[in-house]
Amino acid sequence: MLGDLYNGQPIHALADNHYGLILSRFPLQSRLKTGDSALHAEVTFPGSSVSVWNLHLPKSMASTQAQYDAVEQLVDQFICQPGPAIVAGDLNATQINHPYLAIAQHLDNAFEKAGFGMGFTFPSPARRMGWITPFMRIDHIFVSGHFQIHDVYVVDEAGGSDHYPVVAVVGMDNAIL
After folding, report:
1. Are 158 and 148 in contact (CB under 8 A)?
2. Considering the entire predicted model, what is its pTM?
3. How far is 69 from 128, CA to CA, in rounded Å?
C-alpha cells in the first residue's frame, strides 16, 4: 500500500515505537533522537534539504513541566535551522496550550492556513471515552515560511490508533513535496 504512494519508487523510513514514523520519497540524511520527545531527520532532495521533527510530547496531566521542557528544547533546535523545517506530531496540546503557542511563534500551523472544519484528531474509536466523536485537535503539522501549503486534512480512518492522522500537502518553489 505505501509503495503505491509514489508509483513504486523507494520509500525511506525512520521509525521509533514512541515517537512515530517519518516517511519520505526522498533520502533521509540523518537519524537523531531529540531529547525524550522527538525524532529528527534531514530529508534531502535535489537542490535542498528539509529538517523534519516528529513529536510525541508528554501529556500535561502527567507533568506540565516535562511537557514545557520538551517543547522548549525542541524550539531551541529548530530555530537554529536556517533552512526549511517541518515539526509534526502529537503535541498532547490544543491551540491554547503552551506547547502549541511556543511552536506557533516560529512556524505556521498548516491546518490553520489551509485546513477546513475543526480538524479534531482525538479520540478515535480506539479510545472513545464515552464520546460519540472526536472533540480535540492535539496533533499538528507546523511548517516554516519556505513552504506553500496546498492542502491539509484529517484522515477519517485511524487504523487502530487512538488519534486520527493529519496530512499536509506542501511544496517549495512550485514543486509538491
Report:
1. no
2. 0.84
3. 29
